[in-house]
């Protein structure tokens, strides 16, 4: 009986820790959701996909900076962000420091997803692979193997396989709960 109570107590503690972790992450996501929704609606990108990308890229930390130099919530490479800002959104006052501002970062990131979605006919795996591994790499993979529609297991980079799989898993979960 004593072991049963201890086991039950440990299970309750684990459940409470899981719930607090989930609520903490939901709270972080909700903080930025109005901005996500604003630009997702404006550029016709699923806000749940953007939320999943931000979760994986920065865990909702607007101050995040990767070892490779990606910045902000959506972990944009400064040159990619500059190209999106100038060539597509006609924002001539690009400032790399503004990538730490959630509104600016999400605006550029969502539009970049829109560009990739248009380029790859909404093939989510190719969009995500491009976002992670770079557009040039995915175009090279497609050139070498034009028939393959790349599911995450077929992607050449191990990191990109994990990335695409993880975002798909989070995105699917978010869509499931949206429909409840």
Question: What can you tell me about this protein's structure?
Answer:
By secondary structure, the chain is mainly α. It has a single domain (36-178), classed as Orthogonal Bundle (Lysozyme), CATH 1.10.530. The protein is built from 7 helices and no strands. Helix 1 (2-43) crosses helix 4, helix 2 crosses helix 7 and helix 4 (102-119) crosses helix 5. The longest helix is centred in the first third of the chain and has 42 residues, at 2-43. The model is unreliable at 14-24 (pLDDT under 50).
Query: How many individual domains?
Result: 1
Order of helices and strands: HHHHHHH
CATH topology description: Lysozyme
> Ranges with pLDDT <50 over ≥5 residues?
14-24
Provide the structure class: mainly alpha
- Averaging pLDDT over every residue, what do you get? 85
Beta strands, count? 0
Report strand %. under 5%
Helix content: 55-70%
**Globular, elongated, flat, extended or rod-shaped: what is the shape?**
globular
Cα separation of the termini: 39 Å
Query: From the coordinates shown, what is the CATH architecture?
Result: Orthogonal Bundle
CA radius of gyration: 19 Å
CATH class category name:
Mainly Alpha
Individual helix count: 7
The biggest sheet, with number of strands, parallel, antiparallel or mixed sense and barrel status, is: none
Helices, strands, pairings?
Elements: H1 2-43, H2 47-58, H3 78-88, H4 102-119, H5 124-133, H6 135-144, H7 158-178
């Amino acid at each position: 009986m004593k072991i049963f109570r201890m086991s039950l107590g440990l299970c309750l503690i684990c459940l409470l820790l899981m719930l607090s972790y989930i609520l903490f992450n939901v709270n972080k996501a909700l903080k930025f959701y109005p901005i996500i929704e604003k630009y997702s609606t404006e550029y016709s990108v699923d806000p749940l996909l953007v939320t999943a990308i931000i979760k994986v890229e920065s865990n909702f930390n607007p101050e995040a900076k990767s070892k490779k130099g990606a910045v902000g919530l959506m972990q944009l490479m400064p040159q990619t962000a500059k190209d999106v800002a100038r060539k597509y959104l006609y924002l001539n006052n690009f400032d790399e420091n503004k990538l730490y501002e959630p509104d600016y970062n999400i605006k550029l990131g969502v539009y970049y997803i829109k560009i990739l979605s248009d380029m790859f006919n909404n093939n989510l795996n190719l969009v995500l692979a491009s976002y992670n591994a770079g557009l040039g790499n995915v175009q090279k993979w497609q050139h070498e193997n034009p028939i393959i529609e790349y599911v995450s297991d077929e992607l050449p980079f191990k990191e990109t396989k994990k990335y695409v799989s993880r975002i798909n898993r989070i995105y699917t979960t978010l869509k499931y709960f949206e429909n409840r």
